[in-house]
Design goal:
5-stranded mixed β-sheet; 5 strands; 44% helix; 5% strand
Length: 421
């Protein structure tokens, strides 16, 4: 028998005793093939000695767009070389003949090095418990290639999910309902959601679900409706795992006693509250005191509530963006916002930004608020001087005339720790 690899241009041929030769098609340009132990020509080439050179030649062939299939007249020699190859790279099993893919020793060596090589094993060996155990212990996902009988074998599945929790998706229905197996799977979180593969009964099991959400709170998506409506359970989940309120039942998101602790922990959880609670003054106040921008989710009525908005902008000046138009024209509210974040002035009304008395107060809080002043006030010496004295960088927002004014430049240079040019 002859081993050959079909490529787009040259053809790789293995001739006894396991010698690699490149024979180009007649129309192909003559180019030297540089893989170890390989030479162009039809009359033979240097032997590829050992597993490393054989693997290198195979990889070179694949890199050139080809696929490799191996067979040979020297069976014993090929078996030894393949055994050595799969011990270095288990997936080299894909190049083996059907006979060697059914060889128990070769396949065991391959799956111990790379569990996914089980894919290339014969059907008989995919049903061999020892072989499959070795494969899933190296890569739990190899369970996909096991026989149906072994995917229902508790020991095999336990080994698989302990290596990779998501392997639970390949287990039999009976084992997806096995509490010990599912617990092992959710505790071995690697990637993807595991709980979704558990039986409906186990997705309603508190211990199982809590174990699942410990690594990723979003596993709650797959919990039973009963658990998502359980106030005590969901409150513990929210307090421990953070942003999972989106999975709570509608009833809980309309429950004042449930939502208050949630928004006190993360104000923006107000987003998930019922419309009634987004209009609840106590709930909204608690939310904006924790995170001012939670004002975005308050009712229109509370966005026009001076006390609520003041609490919001004092926590985060940017909350001014979500205040009512009336309050964005309120001097006290806007000054409070500017005091927290000078750039919040961009949300103030145009009238306020053109108001000389107001802008004097604003730039004394944060000189860079000058950026949002009207063009007239950017040319006002007193306003600009107040801004520069608070923050030397503010001069770049003044009119061109004042930026070149020697008095302004001197005022900036006189600031402590002067670094301005």
């Amino acid at each position: 028998m002859m081993v050959q690899a079909l490529l787009l241009l040259p053809r790789l041929v293995v001739t006894p005793p396991a010698r690699l030769v490149v024979a180009p098609p007649q129309s192909a340009a003559v180019r030297r093939f540089t893989a170890p132990g390989v030479q162009r020509g039809e009359d033979g080439g240097r032997p590829a000695r050992g597993a490393e050179q054989l693997l290198a030649a195979m990889s070179n062939a694949q890199a050139r767009g080809g696929s490799v299939q191996m067979c040979s007249a020297t069976r014993d020699s090929d078996r030894e070389k393949l055994l050595a190859a799969v011990q270095q790279n288990g997936y080299a099993l894909r190049y083996a003949s059907a006979e060697l893919q059914a060889d128990r020793e070769v396949v065991l060596a391959a799956v111990q090095q790379y569990g996914y090589a089980l894919r290339c094993a014969s059907a008989e060996l995919q049903a061999d418990r020892e072989v499959v155990l070795a494969a899933v212990q190296q890569n739990g996902d190899a369970l996909y290639y096991a026989s149906a009988e072994l995917r229902a074998d508790r020991g095999v599945v336990l080994a698989a999910v302990q290596q990779c929790g998501v392997a639970l998706c390949y287990a039999s229905a009976e084992l997806k309902a096995d509490r010990e197996v599912v617990l092992a799977a959710v505790q071995q979180y690697t990637c993807g959601y595991v709980l979704r593969y558990a039986s409906a009964e186990l997705r309603a099991d508190r211990e199982v679900v809590l174990a699942a959400v410990q690594d990723d709170g979003h596993e709650l998506e797959y919990a039973s409706a009963e658990l998502k409506a359980d106030r005590e359970f969901m409150l513990a989940a929210v307090q421990q795992y953070g942003d999972v309120l989106c999975y709570a039942s509608a009833e809980l998101r309309a429950d004042r006693e449930f939502m208050l602790p949630a928004v006190q922990q993360d104000g923006c959880e107000l987003y998930y509250a019922s419309a009634e609670l987004q209009a609840d003054r106590k709930v909204v106040l608690a939310a904006v005191q924790q995170d001012g921008v939670a004002l975005e989710y308050a009712s229109a009525e509370l966005k026009a509530d001076r006390e609520v908005v003041l609490a919001a902008v004092r926590q985060d000046g940017d909350a001014l963006e979500h205040a009512s138009a009336e309050l964005r024209a309120d001097r006290k509210v806007v000054l409070a916002a500017v005091q927290q974040d000078g750039y919040a002035l961009r949300y103030a009304t145009a009238e306020l930004r053109a108001d000389r008395e107001f802008m004097l107060a604003a730039v004394q809080q944060d000189g860079c608020a000058l950026y949002y002043a009207s063009a007239e006030l950017k040319a006002d010496r007193e306003v600009v001087l107040a801004a520069v004295q608070q923050n030397g960088h503010a001069l770049k927002f003044a009119s061109a005339e004042l930026q070149a004014d020697e008095f302004m430049l001197a005022a900036r240079r006189s600031l402590p720790g002067h670094r301005y040019t």
